Amino acid sequence: MNSPDDFGFEDDAALLKRTARRLLETRASTDALHRLVAGRVDATRECLWDQALWAELVALGWTAIAVPESADGFGMGLPAICGLIEEVGRAALPSPLVATLCATYVLRACDSPAAEALLRRVAEGAAVSLAGTDARGSWEHEDTDVTATSSGGAGSNGQVTLDGVACYVQDAQKAEVFLVKARAPAGVGLYVVDARAPGVTVHPDAILDLTRDQARVELRGVTLPADASVAAAPPDGPRALRAAEPAMLAILAADMVGAAEWQLQTTAEYARTRVQFDRPLGFFQAVKHPLVDMMMKIDEARSLVYDAACSFEHEPAHAELRARMAKSSASDAAAYCSSRSVQLHGGIGFTWECFVHLYFKRQKHNEVLLGDGAYQRAKLADALIGPIGGTRACA
Amino acid sequence: MDGNTHLLEASADAGESPEQAAFRARCRAWLATNIPAKPAFALPLGPIEISSAQQLEHLRAWQRAAYEAGLVGCDYPEAYGGGGRRSCQRVANEELQAAGAPFFPNIVGLGMAGPTIFHHGTEAQKRRYLPPLLSAAEIWCQGFSEPGAGSDLAGVQTFARRDGARWIISGHKVWTSLAQFADWMILLCRTSREHKYAGLSYFIIPIASAIGRGVTVRPLIKMTGGTGFNEVLIDELVVDDDMRLGEVGQGWAVAMTTLLHERGAGTLATPSAGGGIGGDEEDALGASGLPALARASVRAGRPAADDPVMRDKIVQLLIRERALQQTRRRAQHPALCDHPQRLPLQHKLLISELLQDAARVACELGGMASTLHRADPNAPAGGRWPLAYMNSYGFTIAAGTSEVQRNILGERVLGLAKSK
C-alpha cells in the first residue's frame, strides 16, 4: 500500500525519458548506428561507439542520475533510470551506460570509502563495468576466478594483489574502471581496479552483438593500496551484489523492452507499406497477429519493469521477486520480437543491409545477461512454490 | 457521447481525492457488516452461470442492498438513480473486491446496457431504464450474435420494419446469457438491407413481458453440459419508436459503445465485476492457487511441485497474473503508455487467455483425477478445474473472439490494413 500508484515515475522521470528519446532520435538514429557499427562485415573485436556523443551524455548527467546526492549525483529513483534505459535500448546505443548504472547500484550497496570515491568519479562521467563472471560463464555471487591477497598489514599501509581472469566483462573497452569480484581467504570481496593499472590486460572477445563490446580481463599481480581499492571487504561482496541485483535486472529488462519496441514499430511499419498479393502485409492475419503478440509481450514486460523498479524503491522485500519476473518477461519478449522481426521482414530481413539484425543480436546478448527467462523462473519457483524436495520434508 | 461524459470517466489521477477517500471509508464500513451469509444452496461461478430463480433472487437482493448503500452506480447522475459522485465507482469496485463480496447478477445491465443508454439514450430513456437497472429490479440481456453473424457482427439479419410510429421486429439471436431471467434486451438489428453498417439500428426490446407475444427463449446447452445461455426467437414483435436507442442507421456506433465496455476498455467504470467468485468457489480460478495444487499433486511418484517443467509452467502463469495487475496500474499513467487504447484493448485478451492457460495447467497437475466430472464424488476440488478449462472457451470466444481482438489491436493501435 505504501507503493505509489504511478510507480514513482514522476514528472522529472517523464521529462528525462522524453528528452532522451528526442536526443537519441536525432543524434543516434538507426541509420547512423548501421553506418557506425555495420560499415564493415566482420566478426569484430573492435569497439565501435560515438565517443563525442558519450561526452555529451556525460555532460547531461546521465552517469550521475543513479549516484546518490551525498556523492554529488542526482539520486533519481530506479523508475526514472528504467525510463531512460528504455530509450537507450530503443536506440540500441553502443555505450557503457548500462554497465555503469549496474555497477553504480553495486557501489551504492557497498558502504566504503573506496566505493564512495568511485561513485563520485561515476557522477563525473567515469564508465565502470562489473568484472564478476568466471570462465564457465557463472555470475553467481560466490563464483570468481580472481584471487585477492592482502599484504603489508592492515590499515593505510595495506595492499591487495589481484590475480586471475574475469570473463564476459561488458563494455570492457569503454570502461575506465573495473569493479572486480575476487576471492580472499575471508570470502568474496569487490575491488576497484583502474583499467590502465599495471598488470591489467583487456582481451576483447569476438562477439555477435555489434552494439557493445565484451572482453576477458586478465589481472596479473595487480597490486593496489587497500584503502583506495576495497569497495566491499570480503566476505561482504556477495551481499552487495545481491542487494544490487534487482536494480541490475530491471535495467537490463528496460533495455530489452526499449529495443523490442523498436523491433515492433519497425516491423509494423514494414507490414503497413510492403505490398504482396496486392495488399499490405499487415492485411494478412498470419502477419497481423504475431505483430499484436509482440506488442502484448512488450507491454507485459514493460509493466513488470516499472513494478520491479517501484518495488526496489518502496518495497525492498519484494524487489528481487519482481525484478526476476521483469527479466523473465523481457527476455521472452525480446526472443519473440527478435524472431518475428526477422521472419516478417522476409528475405530483406535476412540481410546485413537491413537494420533488424542489429537489434536481433543485441537482444540475444541481453537475453542471457544475468540469466534468461527459464533461469529467472527456476529462481522464482524456489520462492513461489518452494525448493525442490521441500514438499516431502514438510509433509 | 454527451456533455456528461466527464462525470463517468475513470480517474487518471495518481492520488485519491478527499471525496474518494471518504467514500472508500464509507464503503469499507458498510461492507464490514453487510455481506450476505452464504445461502444453503450452491451459488453459480459467475453471473452468466445463474441457473435458478433461487440463485437470482439471492443475488438480486444483494445488488439492491449494495445499490441502496451507494456502492452501485456511484458515478451516474442522481437524476438517473445514481450517486452523483465523481470517479468513485472504481473505489467501490476495489473495496468490493477486497472484501470478497459476491458478484452482482445484472452484469449485462451494469457493464453494457447502462453505459450505452447513458451515452446514447434520450433523457426520458435514461430516467426510465437506468434506476431499475442499477438496483437490479430489472435484469438485462444482450441481443447481438446470430447464427449467421458471429465475429462479423455487422452481418446481423434480424430486421426491424417501420410501421408508422412502431417497429415490427423479427429474427434469431444466440448465445444470450441471462435471457431466461431478463426483463429487457439491448438489440442490434437491421433497418435497411442496402448498407451493411449504415443499415443497422439499435433498440431496447422487452423479453419477460413479451414471452408468447413475439418472443421465445430457449436454453442452449454448453459443452460443459451446463445451461446459462439461450437462443431468442423474435417473431413480429411490435415496439414503439421510443424504444430505439440512437438514430436509425446509427446502430453500429451505438454497438461500439457497448462492446468497448463489454471488453473492459470503456471510459465508464462499471460495478459489474462485483467482488469475489462467490458461493462455493472461494478460491481464485487464476494462477495463484497453482503452487498449492502442485504441492498436493503427484507426478512420477514425486510431488508435482518438484517437476522442473511444471514449476516453469506455473511460474510463467504467476508472472502473467502479476503483469495483468501491473498493466492495469500502468494504464492509468499516460506517461508510461504510448497509445491511449493500447492497454485497454488488450484487457479482455489477457484475462481470458490467462484463465484458460491456468485452468489447463491445473488439469495437467490433476493428472488422472482431471478425467473426473464434477458429478463424481472423487473429483478433487469438486471437479472445478476441468469445468473451468472448458468454460474458459466461453471467455476467449464471447465478446469478440481472441482472433477478432487481435485484428482490432493490429488495426487500431498498429495501423495495419483492415482484414476485411
Structure, described:
- The complex is a heterodimer of chains A (395) and B (420).
- Chain A folds into 3 domains: 11-123, Butyryl-Coa Dehydrogenase, subunit A, domain 1; 128-234, Butyryl-CoA Dehydrogenase, subunit A, domain 2; 239-388, Butyryl-CoA Dehydrogenase, subunit A, domain 3, CATH 1.20.140.
- Chain A is 51% helix and 16% strand.
- Chain A has helices spanning 11-27, 30-37, 51-59, 78-90, 97-108, 113-123, 226-229, 237-273, 285-314, 316-345, 356-368, 373-384, 390-394; strands spanning 128-131, 146-151, 159-170, 177-184, 187-194, 200-204, 214-225, 230-232, 275-276, 279-280.
- In chain A, the strands form 3 sheets. Chain A has a 4-stranded mixed sheet with strand order 1-4-5-8.
- In chain A, helix 8 (237-273) runs antiparallel to helix 9.
- Helix content of chain B is 39%, strand content 14%.
- In chain B, helix 5 packs antiparallel against helix 6, helix 9 packs antiparallel against helix 10 (347-366) and helix 10 runs antiparallel to helix 11.
- The longest helix of chain B has 24 residues, at 308-331.
- Mean pLDDT of chain B is 89; it is low at 1-14 and 272-284.
